[in-house]
Amino acid sequence: MDKLWAPWRIKYVTKIGKKVKGCVFCNILKEKKDKKNFIITRTKHSYSVLNLYPYNNGHILIIPNRHVSDLGGLKKEEREDLLDLLGETKDLLDKTMKADGYNIGINLGRAAGAGFPKHVHIHLVPRWQGDVNFMPVTGGTKVISQSLKALYETFFKAQKTRKK
Q1: For a designed S-S bond to 51, which of 10, 22, 59, 63 qualifies (C-beta 3.0 to 4.6 A apart)?
Q2: How many CB atoms lie within 10 A of CB 1?
């Protein structure tokens, strides 16, 4: 049997079934430990963060600061800030990862696939020609080719050069 080494998944595996107090998105926002939590950008009303369990390399979540379960619960300025940050984050991915395309989506409710249905968020998933291969089909495994730490450092350096 072939083995796929993915040591970063151990945190996920060992936390399954353990209850986290409060909302995971609200908790990391309050911690103000951006590097530890892989928060890329904070704005007045939202923030972007690397997804710890990505569908693809570079999968980022765009999250409103305020805890609301639906887009309708956001104020106009919060929605605008969220979408502006989505555009800014996509630009960062364009610059650093050179994706061929993107999947952008919002899952509202558990039945729609929302892992955290009580705090609305946007998924920004970069895609490349040929990024779907035999592994998910035959092995039931998705290969993520870069560590979150390395990816975070890439984004951090790119943002520093953009701000100059």
Answers
A1: 59
A2: 2
Residues 17-48: pLDDT tens digits?
Answer: 456 678 999 999 999 999 999 999 999 999 99
Provide DSSP, the chain: ------GGGHHHHHHTTPPPSS-HHHHHHHHT-HHHHTEEEE-SSEEEEE-SS-SSTT-EEEEESS--SSGGGS-HHHHHHHHHHHHHHHHHHHHHH--SEEEEE---SGGGT-SSTTS--EEEEEE-TT---HIIIIIS-----S-HHHHHHHHHHHHHHHH-
Round to whole Å and give the CA distance between 148 and 150: 6
The Cβ-side half-sphere exposure at 18, using a 13 Å CA radius, reads 8
Looking at domain 27-128+138-158, which of 3.30.1050.10, 3.30.428.10, 3.40.225.10, 3.40.50.880 is its CATH number? 3.30.428.10
Q: Residues 41, 35: contact at Cβ < 8 Å?
A: no
pLDDT band at 108 (very low <50, low <70, confident <90, very high): confident
